[in-house]
Design goal:
Mean pLDDT: 93
Order of helices and strands: EHEEEHHHHHHEHHHHHEHEEHEEEEH
Structural class: alpha+beta
Distance between the termini: 26 Å
Length: 385
């Protein structure tokens, strides 16, 4: 049974959490903010295979949900006039401009139009994603896969390193320190890490169930056939170079979470994610703390493209570092957020003054989220309507 606090109108949200963790024999947490205050802060199930209970402050690796936090760091830099979305990346990072990348803009990176998704082209070993220098050198030597600005293809691994290096170049802070000092500490977040301190390892939950990452690319014909039935076109070979299966299967160990991989190894509580998105959905301010201006929020959440994504197959409605929001109750036209491999996710919606976040340790097989979070988001939408 779930623990925590929630208002009676949100019983369905908590019931769904309980049902999901019971079915998978796992654990998870949900937090919902409405009109700037928490209306659900609940957790349920187990934190490890030994059956230890999920705690109020349990942290979970949340994969690409991390990209929303990394993007927020860059929006803060824009708000402080350290960089602008239409700047060329090479204006701040000269080495980046090699091999036909001189005109790529920050905006194109944030909406996945830079053509720089092929991480496999320069990685010799999957563990190199934990070596910042190797990743940055690889990006500097990369040639775009298409003319920047003409298409969008999900930068599954490379995104966080490009954005993180821009943040470092313009602010002087690495992404770990930036998130801690400029996001987590001002907002009083209890668990928001891109690079987990060793002192926090005791809070990290264990993955209870994990999909076989090889299934993502093992049967390309089946993937294409299923996508076609849905009216989509996907390219398994592009998925394989943007998100090599060996990267997903290589996770584990202390170094995996301690070294910043700002595309996908952030460790969060649902409470922290929901609070950050509540701040953004509220115009950039929460409880007297202003993270960014309302003008910057409006720029950040404006839809940049709606074409089908080359990697993911369907239109992601890319904003600047966030994607659109779909719930089981409704599509949220102004919603923005980011889901993660395995099922986690977080989003905000200025129209409804709503923010929802979900962390878990029973991973599904979806690259960009799954129906569990869609259902929880839908229950939150129904609760306020």
């Amino acid at each position: 049974m779930a623990q925590g606090t929630w208002e009676p109108g949100f019983d369905e949200v908590v019931a769904l959490l309980d049902a999901q963790v019971a079915e998978s024999g796992s654990g998870g947490a949900v937090c919902v903010y409405h009109r700037g205050r928490p209306v659900v802060d609940a957790w349920s199930g187990v934190a490890d295979r030994a059956g230890s209970p999920w705690q109020s402050d349990s942290l979970a690796v949340s994969y690409s949900t991390t990209k929303g936090v990394t993007s927020t760091a860059l929006h803060i830099c824009v708000d402080r006039n350290l960089v602008d979305y239409d700047d060329r990346v090479a204006d701040h990072w000269p080495e980046f401009g090699q091999h036909g990348k001189g005109s790529i803009t920050v905006r194109q990176v944030l909406c996945h139009e830079a053509g720089m998704y092929d991480v496999k082209s320069f990685l010799d070993r999957p563990e190199q994603i934990l070596d910042w220098g190797v990743m940055i050198a690889g990006l500097e030597g990369m040639t775009p896969a298409f003319e920047p600005g003409t298409k969008n293809g999900y930068h599954a691994v490379t995104f966080g390193f490009i954005v993180g290096e821009i943040v470092r170049r313009v602010s002087g802070l690495g992404i770990t320190d930036f998130v801690r000092t400029q996001i987590a500490e001002p907002l009083g977040l209890d668990g928001c890490y891109v690079g987990l301190p060793p002192t926090e390892h005791g809070r990290l939950v264990e993955t209870i169930t994990s999909p076989d990452a090889g299934e993502l690319t093992r049967d390309p014909a089946a993937m294409v056939r299923i996508a076609a039935q849905l009216g989509l076109t996907i390219s398994p070979e592009l998925i394989a170079v943007a998100l090599p299966p060996e990267i997903l299967t290589a996770r584990g160990g202390d170094e995996w979470v301690e070294q910043p991989m700002p595309s996908g190894n952030g460790c969060f509580t649902a409470r922290s994610l929901a609070r950050m998105y509540a701040c953004l959905a509220g115009g950039g301010e929460l409880d007297g703390v202003r993270l960014v201006s309302d003008k910057t929020v409006e720029r950040a959440i404006e839809t940049q493209n709606n074409r089908p994504d080359l990697i993911l197959g369907f239109p992601m409605q890319w904003r600047l570092g966030y994607h659109g929001v779909l719930t089981s109750a409704a599509v949220l036209p102004r919603g923005f957020g980011h889901n993660g491999y395995g099922g986690s996710g977080a989003w905000g919606d200025p129209e409804r003054e709503l923010a929802v976040a979900y962390t878990l340790n029973a991973l599904g097989d979806a690259i960009a989220g799954d129906t569990r979070f869609m259902d929880i988001g839908g229950a939150a939408v129904r609760a306020i309507e």
